[in-house]
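Q: Give me the 3D complex with flavin-adenine dinucleotide.
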Amino acid sequence: MTHPSKIVVWFRRDLRLSDNPALAQAVAEKAEIVPLFIFDPYLLNHPETGIGRVQFLLGCLDSLQKNLEHLGSKLIRHYGNQPQVLVEVATKVGADAVYWNEDSEREWRTKTDVCAIEALREAGIKVRCFQSEAVSPAGGKEVYDLKFFTPQWYRFLQEPVSLRPTHLSPVQFSTNTSPLKSLEDLGLPMTTQTVPVAGEREAHRLLNEFLDCKVPRYLKSLSVATQASQNTSRLGAHIKFGTISVRTIYQQVLLKRRTATAWEQRNLDGFISRLFWRDHFAQKLRNLPRCETESYLEAFDSVPWSQNDQHYRAWCEGKTGYPLVDAAMRCLNATGWLPFRLRALCATFLCIDLFLPWQWGAKHYMQQLIDGDVAIDHWQWQSHAGVSNRGRTWFRVYNPVKSIEKIDPKGAFIRQWVPELANVPEEALRLSGSASLEYCCPIVEHQEARRRALAVLEPIKHQHQYQQL
Ligand SMILES: Cc1cc2nc3c(=O)[nH]c(=O)nc-3n(C[C@H](O)[C@H](O)[C@H](O)COP(=O)(O)OP(=O)(O)OC[C@H]3O[C@@H](n4cnc5c(N)ncnc54)[C@H](O)[C@@H]3O)c2cc1C
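A: Here is the predicted complex, encoded as structure tokens.
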């Protein structure tokens, strides 16, 4: 078989040189490589796009560019309809093939890939797609069924990582268009969030920091507002944009596990299980693309959810009158990050206490989270709204007042993010929500709102359980 002599390697959510199967294959074929990234207006203008996340993406691209330059190559950035741009660039550079790694974050992505393959083949250009994460092409239910998915996940993650290239050929290509290096170049407003350092080197630094320093405190600090940010890996945004592969992380964790204490092993296993759920959500969304916008259990989409825009705005802005919810929402808006337990608390507050559709909450999270990832975000939202659950804890409703005791026992997180409460003593904070604090009157009464919501939702759950018998 003759190998292509010039290959466009199309980077998407795999912004790394290490363990990048498409790039490694092009290198193995000794081809001249043209690295390309395309900003698509559909994604940039999508209602769920977060400006802070785009800023992080730009940082990942700068880092990729530097790493490519270090090897003698360069990254070409383009803007436009992806199938069209691919054909244009491949034709202009005289490439005989385009290689890329699979990505299925949105149904749009899968459909666009089909169009890209068609357009390139029509132009006589060969296409090869590679699997860079443990997510298989969509098939029947058995693809995401845990009996099938679990062994496949472990098998994939144990395969050797793809080699990092040590040298690449120079790229002769120039564009007269915008450099596409800033939010302004992309026609987007500035971000007010503090965006973390991006890029491959930083992803490996975070992983090492996690393995060397954070492991013993990982599980215990997951639910404590003031500890989680220092003791979880903070790799979410890196995994989302692929500056490090889950396979690399998994293999490093296994290495660490060999010499770890029993306690550390427990924490490492807890960490691996979260990576597993991440990939499982991605697989499920790939198989059930309608769940990007609809509930897994369709009956819940017919519920007369509230459409109270004032409540929604109060939740988004952190003005619900519940200090922990408000602190969390303000922290999310300012930093683009929240620990799991607070994401969950604010999600149930929106869906149960305010009885608003999960899609509204998921959209705001996606607009704010630097690690916003449709598959995790939307499945987590559905699970916390109870519209996808079939387990024993179908409706997990967190009490926004009692949770302070567990999540922020000294009130430090609340005081940091709700300055109106800076001088309120701990005990008073724990009583808040009962209108004892005057910074903002609670917009709903928790117990009453919970009772009303469950009166509507429980019968649908029972009906569903009955149909399953
Ligand atoms: C309503 C809601 C929405 C969420 N939206 C997102 C999202 O858009 N993107 C996102 O990455 N995570 C999301 N999560 C999951 C979780 O809160 C974050 O992954 C985690 O807090 C990120 O911090 P970290 O990178 O330090 O994670 P760590 O705890 O160090 O975990 C490592 C990685 O494992 C994955 N992971 C961790 N926890 C979970 C989980 N519960 N489910 C699935 N995967 C997990 C993530 O990729 C994470 O980066 C959401 C959770 C909830 C309740």
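A quick observation: Strands lie at 6-11, 32-39, 76-79, 97-101, 126-130.
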